[in-house]
Amino acid sequence: MTERLRAVIADDQALVRTGFRMILAADGIEVAAEAADGEEAVAAVRRTRPDVVLMDIRMPRMDGLEATRRILAGGAGGSSGAGDTRVLILTTYDLDHYVYAALAAGASGFLLKDVTPEHLVAAVRLVRSGDALLAPTITRRLVERFARRDDVRPALHRDLSRLTPRELDVLRLLATGLSNTELADRLNLSVATVKTHVARILSKLGLRDRVQAVVVAYETGLTSPGGTG
Asked: What does the alpha-carbon distance between residue 143 and residue 23 come to, in Å, rounded to a whole number?
């Protein structure tokens, strides 16, 4: 039985929201609310507490970046914050310079707006699970391009001394976009052991998911832009 999943769609174009709603509903994903700007998105998350927010970046009144910050910092839900809500950024261009900042703010990944219906549904479910990095090669390329720019301040610096040597190895390779299976093959470990290492890394560094771990790996210099891990 497929796990019940609730989403909020935030985009200033009504046709985009309608199209995404139809695609998600056809796969049994409930759209709890729609929002035409960032302020509406924050309010919708507070009201409905969805599992995933599909968040456009360029919107009036409050853009998707600020809305993402407020939602994931707890501003959308008062004392209880956004809970387990994940934010999936929607963008027209695959190297939109706002996307890196959104990932650093806690977004769990991003999608191009011309995504296929199958990929959209799979991405929403993937982000909800928190088990894999969404679009690893695209995300890594974007992080490599913006992680060292002077106009983007690091937002997720963490003390990597908390990690064991093996956990550092896992984080370094994770930042290159490898899946759990690929990590297991590279390190001669079982997939279950890799999942345990990843979970411990996230817990020790206070991170929401693998995407934030990638950002930390670049911002701390563990992995360098253009590096192979």
From this structure: 29
- 37, 70, 105 from 79: Cα distances, Å: 23, 13, 19
Going edge to edge, which strands form the sheet with 86-91?
A: 30-35, 6-10, 52-56, 86-91, 109-112
Helix (H), strand (E), coil (C) string for 166-210? HHHHHHHHHCCCCCHHHHHHHHCCCHHHHHHHHHHHHHHHCCCCH
Distance CA 48, CA 30 (A): 11
Query: Which of 34-48, 102-116, 175-189 is least confident?
Result: 102-116
Closest CA to 135 of 116, 110, 113, 114: 110
Each residue's pLDDT tens digit, 165-208: 999 999 999 887 787 888 999 999 999 999 999 999 999 998 87
Sign of CA dihedral 40, 42, 46, 49: positive
What does residue 202 show for φ and ψ, rounded to 5 degrees?
-60, -40
Question: CB–CB of 59/36 below 8 Å?
Answer: yes
Q: What is the pTM of this model?
A: 0.73
Helix axes 97-104, 64-72, angle to 10 degrees: 10
- Work out the end-to-end distance of the chain between its first and last CA atoms, rounded to an integer number of angstroms: 38
Which domains can be identified in the chain, with CATH numbers?
6-129 (3.40.50.2300), 160-219 (1.10.10.10)
